[in-house]
Amino acid sequence: MLRNTEDRTFLNTTSYAGRLMVPVSGLVVGDYLTPGTGSDSAGYWAENATAANAWLIVTSVNTARGEVEARLAF
Questions:
Q1: pLDDT tens column, 4-24
Q2: Secondary structure of the chain: what % helix, strand, coil (to 5)?
Q3: Cα separation of 72 and 74, whole Å?
């Protein structure tokens, strides 16, 4: 599961910046994902149009929670 997070704390000992793992806007089940630009603001995974280049296939999208479930394409 890829989960976009807001600022969080870890066991109340340290905090870390939120992460945008994958932009969920416009994603639907069956979309393909490949490695993205690799930044907290642009995402670590990006939508891809072709199955030939896919690393992940989206199986569930929850825009309210900022969550995307995906399975490996290989």
A1: 776 666 566 667 777 888 888
A2: 5, 45, 50
A3: 6
Contact 44, 38 (CB under 8 A): yes
Say which DSSP state 72 is in: E
Q: What is the pLDDT of residues 26-48, one digit of tens each?
A: 899 999 999 988 888 888 999 99
DSSP for 1-63 reads -EE---SEEETTTEEE-----S--TT--TT-EEEEEEEETTTEEEEEES-GGG-SEEEEEEET
Tell me if 59 sits within 8 A of 71, measured CB to CB: yes
Q: What is the pTM of this model?
A: 0.80
Each domain of the chain, given as residue ranges in start order, spans 18-72
CA distance readout (Å), 18 to 14, 15, 22, 62, 74: 13, 9, 12, 18, 29
